[in-house]
Amino acid sequence: xxxxxxxxxxxSFWATTVAGxxxxxxxxxxxxxxxxxxxxxxxxxxxxxxxxxxxxxxxxPAYMGTCSHPCGTPLAGILLGPGIGAALAGLSxxxxxxxxxxxxxxxxxxxxxxxxxxxxxxxxLFFKLGRRLGLPLLAAAGxxxxxxxxxTYIISGSILGGHxxxxxxxxxxxxxxxxxxxxxxxxxxxxxIALGEMAVTGIAVRSIGRQRPEVLEALRVVSKxxxxxVLVFGMAxxxxxxxxxxxxxxxxxxxxxxxxKAGKPGAYAGMDEKVNEAMAESAGAAAHDPFINLEDxxxxxxxxxxxxxxxxxxIIGRSWHLLFGRAKETPNGPTHPVx
Amino acid sequence: xxxSRRSGLHxxxxxxxxxxxxxxxxxxxxxxxxxxxLGLLLTAWIGMAASRTPFRFMAWFVLAPVWATLPVVFGLAxxxxxxxxxxxxxxxxxxEGLAQGGQAALRVLADTSWAGLLFLTTPFTEILAAxxxxxxxxxxxxxxxxxxxxxxxxxxxxHAMRVSASARGGLLGWRREWHTxxxxxxxxxxxxxxxxxxxxxxxQARGGV
Lengths: 339, 209
Hints:
heterodimer, A: mainly alpha, Arp2/3 complex 21 kDa subunit ARPC3, two-stranded antiparallel sheet, 12 helices, B: mainly alpha, about 5% strand
């Protein structure tokens, strides 16, 4: 699941490279902390890096008789933590570019963002959430593997879609349109792989837990700072993508004199309309307006997003003790949380 | 095939080669022009040929990214542009998109050829030393060295276990294959974990840190 070399140029290249370098810096800081705290485990980093590289070469059966390779980074994130997992994913990408011409140097930053941040940090985050919600190792690690993979695809698709929509000459679609096309192409190919990775990650972590539980205990180095960084980054990316999408749709409206194809001022004529119209035409029916058109209802959609965010925030806040442990009661009041 | 360490770029300082590769990739990406990509591609191939790099290795760095590049070329050809060229069913290939796709393919070939030029003419230990000279953190260089040293060993162990499982019928059907692959992956990780501990003990026994 790599963005191929030579695809990203100009601002996309610089933005992803700088962001990827930041993720690497965060991971290297975690690696240094790991060595400082446990100097006797220094070779484990290299061995774990080799392991990640190896996992990305493992064949997973997908369609009839075919096979593909997993990302491997959710498993790395689960076993080694998000920062180290992301950094080792970056180093693994360097070796893959050198040995197999897989990925490349110019897309290294983008691939670190998708495979390192999405795969390793995302996989770790969902694994931790699963564990805190009481899921067994198999299910929690499987959840981490599946959602880490899906997050990887979403980030890759967003980077590619953003590059094509905003920085390519004569784009055919908007950002949302390209994202829809890319995801439509990903789903049939990548979903079986994500399911395979879910199974392999879950079974691998459960096997390690059954055979050598002390290994999992020794490796579970989790800091609240890393979780906060992942959450803040995720929110920042969401906000930026939403605002850029809003700018793109408003610029389309302005370019068309404030009238969209449908004749509604400011309405977004994008991929959905084209696909729906084509489907209706091929079925011999006339396309009509959606029964529930949120775009005509002013800020209802934004209000729903806000309400969803608020609800998610409430659930996270309500489950905070599951994520970070309850505050330890002392005679002087609560102090450090017990994890 | 024995390759003379003195021929072509084999004798050039690894730091210089690393810097050249970075500059070439940067130029290729920052100034997207097919003539520049073509020039870089030819330069890399000439460099590899002058270094007497075996043809099959050179071909690997050309063919390996092709499978990933072709969908990109196709995607750009149908996703960008305004001048229709060919209509394939519901899809229209655009002139501008095809030009963009071809340019992207050239960039891919140029970049991977320069990566091949570095890797095929420089021992990995020299690349690591060059990285250290460029002030890359020690933990990163050491980890890269370990990864390169042990990845093939771990792969052999994984492969041996997989062949063994296959001989016992452990790969019959996708469900059993997923299960077996998960169990083998866990075994390989535990072996890597134990090996890391033994390496550290060996290093400490020799007075290392």
